[in-house]
Amino acid sequence: MAKSPLRILLLEDSTADAELVQDILESDGLCCDVVRVQTRAEFVSALEDRRLDLILADYSLPSFDGISALKLAIGARPDLPFIFVSGTLGEEVAIEVLKTGATDYVLKTKLSRLVPAVQRAMRESKERAERRKAEQALRRSEAYLSEAQRLSQTGSFGWDVVSGQIYWSDETFRIFDYDPATTPTVQTVLDRVHPEDRPRVRQTIERAATEQRDFTDEYRLVMPDGSVKHVAVVAHRTPAEDAQSVVFVGAVTDVTERKRAEEEHARLRQLEADLARINRVSMMGELAASLAHEIRQPIAGVAINAATCLRWLQSEPPRIEDARRTVSAIVNDVKRAADIIDRNHSFYRRGGSRPEPVDLNEVICHMIALLRDAADRNSISIRTELDPELAMTSADRVQLQQVLMNLMLNGIEAMKGDSGALTITSKRGEDGQLMVSVSDSGTGLPVEGAKRIFEAFFTTKPDGTGIGLPLSRRIIESHGGRLWADANTPRGAVFHFTVPITSDVAL
Ligand SMILES: Nc1ncnc2c1ncn2[C@@H]1O[C@H](COP(=O)(O)OP(=O)(O)O)[C@@H](O)[C@H]1O
Ligand SMILES: [Mg+2]
Prior knowledge:
The protein has about 500 residues and is of the alpha/beta class. The chain folds into 4 domains: about 5-130, Rossmann fold, CATH 3.40.50.2300; about 155-255, Beta-Lactamase (2-Layer Sandwich); about 260-350, Helix Hairpins (Orthogonal Bundle), CATH 1.10.287; about 355-505, 2-Layer Sandwich (Heat Shock Protein 90). Helix content is about 45%, strand content about 20%. It has 13 helices and 17 strands. It has helices at about 15-25, 40-45, 65-75, 90-100, 115-150, 170-175, 185-190, 200-210, 255-315, 320-345, 360-375, 395-415, 470-480, and strands spanning about 5-10, 30-35, 55, 80-85, 105, 155-160, 165-170, 215-220, 230-235, 245-255, 355-360, 380-385, 395, 420-430, 435-440, 485, 495-500. Strands 2-1-3-4-5 form a 5-stranded parallel beta sheet, sandwiched between helices. Bound molecules: adenosine-5'-diphosphate (ADP) and magnesium ion. The site of magnesium ion has 4 residues, from helix 12.
């Protein structure tokens, strides 16, 4: 019982009886605070006291009656225990008052029952209050859970394998699009599953039932309107309450949107890969030309030396020593040709990005060697200002070659026919990254499209693809750097890109 005094409303016309009741309560050690009233008006206003714990009421009063008081009390304070304390209370009346809602009754001839009756009433009222609080808390947490399920599009379920009984939360009904009045069964689930996924799902369910192990699954549903949903299911076998029971509790999440996003992402990646390949094929033409040019020399050397060697061998007597010398010259030339092909081999590689330590200066020199021929054909000179102390970066070498080639070819194309100069510089940038700049003295960025040059398919060239710059920017950004363009002085354009220094990135 509570330590603070019991606050009791006592409806009693007899002062003697009122005092007697109070004495009995207190003599039994109950600490109480009694408010006595005699009339209906007093009773009604006393009922407003929120601190009241209990009502004790006489049954018959001169100007008021106990049943009316009981009805008033139930109307105003349904939770307050109400005990009749009365001199006269026949059996029928007693039954009636209890039916009406009185908590108990005590006869004035048996006042020894008063304290136990009060104590019991208080105990029960406290239990009722606690139960109500627990029920409220439960209702609230159910409401939160249901809201959370709706927000996360995750429904819950319970499945008693032995009885076949299945419980679904509201969200699960929504996901499967069934009326909440439906009794879900395994068949109910299977009916919604996409026909192509059905055998597999059936197998998962059957295996879960026989092996009684946790399971996860992802499958498609076909809704009544023909639309397709993707759901992910996880289920956990709950610890058995008895040896026979097998119960799974699980969650089913509508992952349709995530799936769509994944598919869209994969589609974009594919598109990007296709564009990168197209870009590479278009650069391959340039490469083929420069390769042919580079290899022509050693091959020509081989042809001449081979003819000479034949002559030495056919002379009488054969000039073995001279023949030996020309054959080693042939070996050298063939080695040179093989080296040239090896050097360019990486460019023909397909496939995903592979970071490795890369010396940017080396990549630049390599690309210059490749494009020398294209530049010569257009009387363009290539200059470099390379920082000899340049740090390494971690990058996909082929992708960086591709970026440099795009920028350099663009520069050459912008200077076609007016013998300009292409300058490539490397240095450590202000932001601590490595910076490469490719500048030309060509036509300059298109006036109307300076902002658009990085858009896919934007080109001002009759046979351009408009892929080079957007792709290069993508490559650089995927390496954690930036790529941008400026006007060059006095004319032409300059493109800069940055990449992080190796120590900045985990290799
Ligand atoms: N160095 C440059 N000088 C002037 N304009 C350039 C330069 N580089 C690129 N551009 C402009 O940007 C456009 C897009 O370039 P890019 O994406 O490489 O595609 P493409 O070279 O196939 O046109 C070019 O068509 C051109 O208008
Ligand atoms: Mg281009």
